[in-house]
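Ticket #4471: structure export looks truncated?
Reporter: QA, pipeline team
Priority: medium

Steps to reproduce: submit the single chain below to the structure queue and open the exported record.
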Amino acid sequence: MIGALAGYPTNRRCAREIEDYLESFESSKPAQSEDRVTTSLHLNILFLACSVLGARSALFLLELAFA
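Actual output as written to the record:
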C-alpha cells in the first residue's frame, strides 16, 4: 500500500529499465527497441488525495487544540 502511495508503477518502470540495461551489458548487444520501457508522466491520484485529506485533518486538529 505504501508503494502505491509513493508511486510504485514509476519505481517498477525504473527497475525494468535497469534490468534491460544490465541484460544488454552482459550479452554485449543493445536491447531490442520493442523491449524498451516507455516513460511517461505519472501522477498518483491516490497519493495526492491522501495528502490533501491528511493536511486538512492536521489543520482541523490544530484548530481544535488552539481554539
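Status: closed, not a bug. The export was complete when the record was re-opened. Leaving a note from the reviewer for reference: The chain has a mean pLDDT of 76.
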